[in-house]
Amino acid sequence: MLGSGALAVPSCFAACGLALTTATSAGACLACALSLEQMLYCANAHGAWSYEDLTSATLGRRGRIVAKYSIAALLVGVVVAYVNIVGDNFFTAASSGVLPAGVEVNRERVMAGVTFGVFLPLATFVKSQKRLEKVVGFGLATTGLFGLCLVTLAARRLALGDGKSSASKTWDASGLGLVLPIMVFNFAAHVMVFPALKSSGTAVMSTSRVVGIANETMVHLLIFYIVTGACGYVAFGSSVNGNVLRNFGAESGWFGIYTQLVRFLYGCAICTGVPLLFISLREISPSLLLSLSRVAGRHTELVFDVLVLYSCLRVSISVPNIQHVFGLIGSTTCSILTFILPGMMFLRTCPSSSSKKSMNDFKLLQQLGSGVRLSAHALILFGVFIGIACTRSTLQSLKEEAEVVVIIQRLVAAQTFVRSRVQVYDRILTAAAKFRRIDAVERVVSQLSEESKLSESVVKDVTSTLALASSQETRSAAMREFDSLNPFRKDVDEEDVREAKEKFAKARESYRNVSDTLREVRETLRDIEEEGEASQADESSDDVHERADEALEKVRATDDALEETSDVLELTEDVNTDLDGLQVASERLEMTDTIIEQTLEEVRGAKKSGAEAVWQAATNVVEETENKDELIKNLKEPINIAPRAWKKGKGKDVDSQEDIVEKIVAASNKVTDEEAERAVETVLQNNTQDGASSRAVQRASEILKEITAESPSDSSKNPTKADENVVFKKFVNATTEGRQVEQQ
């Protein structure tokens, strides 16, 4: 029972900060340890080693009744928390890591399945307490594995330097009313200490030994809660959930499998505690069992279990966040069982300093000296304060989160509705995405064509220079003397040949880029072709792909020829040999230029087909939805412009294919935006009518802002479908702008 409280501690650190939560944990630990010593002092004085017997011996029948009902409420509250914890395991971290518990549409069915499919068989058929004691080691091992997992997650976040997950808050007293009762619950071992002492055998254990073990356990729990809570806060930052297990499993790879395994094992460990809780509930409710036996007969225990579980199911649905469950338990039953009743029992047992029994075995009480009775009064007042103030704070937080859940549920429903309305426009976006990719290919191939022509021109110039140098070498001395008299003739010297070779080397490097880029173009075209095969066959894409393959083969052959020629130019001084290689390279360049030009024409044809496909998709959408969708008018203008513009050809006053496509996409997006804005306005109006607080609206906006921020940023550059988070984004923008106006 104590271990389950660790799941809510990271959210406590997120609410109050590292320093304040640590101080609150230490204070709660000290107060609970002092109260526990007072209770053990009373038990030792009266020889009563059960909570009910002790209250009966010190406070009489009324005290026993209060203790009995408080323990029953505590056990039922823990069952409610267990239902939520195990139920949360069925929701993935992607959907539940940031969203508050209760948003899930199918949550009630999952909770019912956990309650009657898992807990009821365990409570009904497993009744041997000795057999259950054997699984205590499994629970401790799972708790240790859980703590190790949180430490590893925190170290991983710090190593990666993820700014989003940084835990920057150190002190925030606004959440203290919720955090304090959770910490009290985590250290409230008063009810469990007596069964533990009985199972270990009090006869062979001295009083000082019992007190020492109790204090050591408190210190170990304090260290465990601080370490796991701080690590959980560092690992998940402000997005940590009330049940930190809901954040588990979002990691990828083997580490994600490890966190999912820890999550599953923790759920199994929780299940093993259910039979023990129901054994205790039956023991504490004999009168109820007797009343049920008159109606249910031999099925009394089954009927009792069903009634308790059904009640717990309804409460768990109403209070889905275990942070609030533990907070309510801590501020109500734990304040009574941990502070108020132990303080009253101690005052009855120790009425004055003259009659009090030796406290040598009780270290904390001994250190208080004459102020020990004053400490009991202080603990009673502390319990009353928690019962009033913290219960109020927890209920207020529960009400606010319920409003947040309703707001997000409405937005999820609105997003689903908008998605159903605008899903037809995905055909336009898919066609436009393909057009944009072909348009990008056309730009690249056009640039490659220019680079190839430039390389061909350079090679021709180099060939001309070397041809002139070769002719000079074959001419006689008399002819060279005669040529020198011609003022219009320029001789080619060694410097000119060297410069020509350098130009060729640069052209060679430039052409290598042509080869590499064309290879990337072919891969892009292949992706487009595969997408076309998955949706609809496109002959133009096939032609472009085949032409690109042919061009790539020619470019590779030309690249090899240029490489060979480059090697020859570097290794030989024979102009004739160089000239032969250049002539071969020049011929291949000319052939390659022709193929690249043909490829460019094919790409332009495919681009035109892509633009027409966008127009056709938009036309089909208009025809299908015109009679039932007023917003479709946004598409009519670009659709009517397109045929006239493409028929006239691209001119000064005529829109290009790119402009037409972007206008159609913009019109389609405008439809989605207007639908989303209307949906958000409806949600905001409903929130106002229901009296939702501005704080709840702001918190819902912050949660959705974090969700939309985690969406892949590249998906908006060339989307193939309408934004699935458009309603969330519109809501965030609307609420953010509203806050800015109020602040101004």
UniProtKB/TrEMBL annotation:
It is found in: Membrane. The chain crosses the membrane at residues 24-44, 65-85, 110-128, 135-155, 175-197, 218-237, 257-281, 325-347, 368-389. GO terms for cellular component: membrane. Keywords: Amino-acid transport, Membrane, Signal, Transmembrane, Transmembrane helix, Transport. Residues 1-19 form the signal peptide. It is a multi-pass membrane protein. GO terms for molecular function: L-amino acid transmembrane transporter activity. InterPro entries: AA_transpt_TM. Its main location: membrane. Residues 1-358 form the Amino acid transporter transmembrane domain. Residues 527-547, 683-726 are annotated as: Disordered. Residues 683-696, 710-719 have a biased composition (Polar residues). It comes from the Eukaryota. PANTHER family: AMINO ACID TRANSPORTER, SODIUM-COUPLED NEUTRAL AMINO ACID TRANSPORTER 11-RELATED. Belongs to the amino acid/polyamine transporter 2 family. This is AAAP family transporter: amino acid.
